[in-house]
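Hey, quick one: can you model this chain's 3D structure?
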Amino acid sequence: MPKQNFKVCLCWRRIFKTRVVEPPPDVKNAFNHFSQSGTMTVDDLLTFLIEHQGENNATKEDAQAIFDSLKHLNIFHRRGLHLEAFFRYLLGDHNLAHPPSSKVHHDMTAPLAHYFLFTGHNSYLTGNQVISASSVEPIKDALLRGVRVIELDLWPNSKGDDVEIRHGGYHQLATTFSYPIFLFSCKKEHDFYKTLTSPVDLQKCLQAIKENAFHASEYPVVITFEDHLNPNLQKKVAKMVTETFGDMLYWSETENMQQFPSPESLKKRILISTKPPKEYLGENRGDVSETESGRRNPSDVGEHFPDEDEENTVVQYRQLIAIHAGKLKGGLENWLSDDPMKVRRLSLSEQELENAIRTYATKIVRFTQRNLLRVYPKGTRLDSSNYNPFVGWMHGAQMVAFNMQGYGKYLWIMQGMFKANGGCGYVKKPDFLLRRGENDEVFNPSAPLEVKTVMRVKVILGEGWHQDFHHTAFDRYSPPDFYTKIGIAGVPEDKDVKQTAIIEDEWLPVWDQDFEFLIRVPELAVLRIQVLEYDTTGRPDFGGQTSLPVSELRTGIRTVPLCDKKGNKYKHVRLLLSINFGRPYDL
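Sure thing. Here's the predicted structure for all 587 residues.
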């Protein structure tokens, strides 16, 4: 049996024997039940797939493909699978709890308002909201991960003769915020500040979107502009957008759509969404007076009456806008009004949404049945952190905008949510958010919810750390002490987190522990898994994570590959779980 040495000092080393993990009881029991005389044939494996794994549509060809995938192993026998080969299959990529190659299976022919969209916030930033660089690389990375909504902030350059993408604008700030090497103070509402984020060229951003938009998904990409430009610069933007995207650009046949088109009808199309430039028309001034994020537009300072050339510019720019955005004048109740003759997009900060749901929860649900609601991080999240996305999703918000450049619990949940539906960036909203009753009543997110399903998960074992990590990555003097945290992220009543025991000094931990979760809204539930290494001296070390949509989990004994903090899959690190669902009355 191989050994590992850990150097403690010049004259002392700790030596630990390493072992090969053996098939656990669940695996042995399944193999003995479905095999004959210690060998599992193709027909036996097919029976196992159907009866134990719940793959009712499995075929003999599927079972044969699994056999073929194991032929390179020395433990494979032509007559059939022995226990060890069966165990390796269960830990392999043919047995994933959530296959990454699953196909788009939601109905994609409904209006855009019937879907959650994988949405980015300040998509050009590489780091925090104050001093980080702007670049096309975060835009490329987001699109290649399946993000379907990209946000660009349009600003005049220092000379005022061209357009650049950067972060900065009018904020309603009542306090002074400090950040390393940066301090700004707002003495009055709508005071202007300019962040130290570096700009990036608009044309480069548009080109990056064009080149990367449809690699991960063929469904439409929406570009939301936060526009701080005058008419002359808007004319430049119109020209750049038109020339860059050409036939990819979706042009609305009518200015006021009564219903959004479907994702299916918009495959490989680019849609522009921003506030129509009505402030330059001298008309309809009772409509929209803010940028999409709720900040006042610098060009609104003082009255401006356009000449004929500027009005032509405005027409060109308006024609680009497929999804009109903005807030109606008046309070929140007006913002959420639903015009049967016109659909639009509304943007609220996370804080505005939290305040709104106290009084207008059902009105928000009704609004989002036809219109689009975008939620974005509050301005105090200078570190580019994120917020609880379920507040928006539970009220029907389609565009819950996230900072994609970092990592953390909420971003992992967001990534897990949009692994659903083939990872295409569009997830059909649950029916209960779209229904209306006989008296026009809609779903009330504040009403009590009944348990719909019981999810039972056994965390069996884990492997792969000794291959993907250096042997002193977790502890300088001994093998790691791993434990697993597993839980449900979802609506408040569904939130639950469990934890396994700590397995000391072991690269191949076997937990074999059962957990049970009561789930009320499985359509919005995400299974969160995180492996940590216990450290007596401080915070635990990170050993991998993943988040998976509960509605698409496959039952039976399944393998779950783990990812690093950025969401990139490790080559070898994975867990073996047993997953089953039961009805509430089985409790």
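One thing worth noting: Confidence is low (pLDDT under 50) at residues 169-192, 280-290, 298-303.
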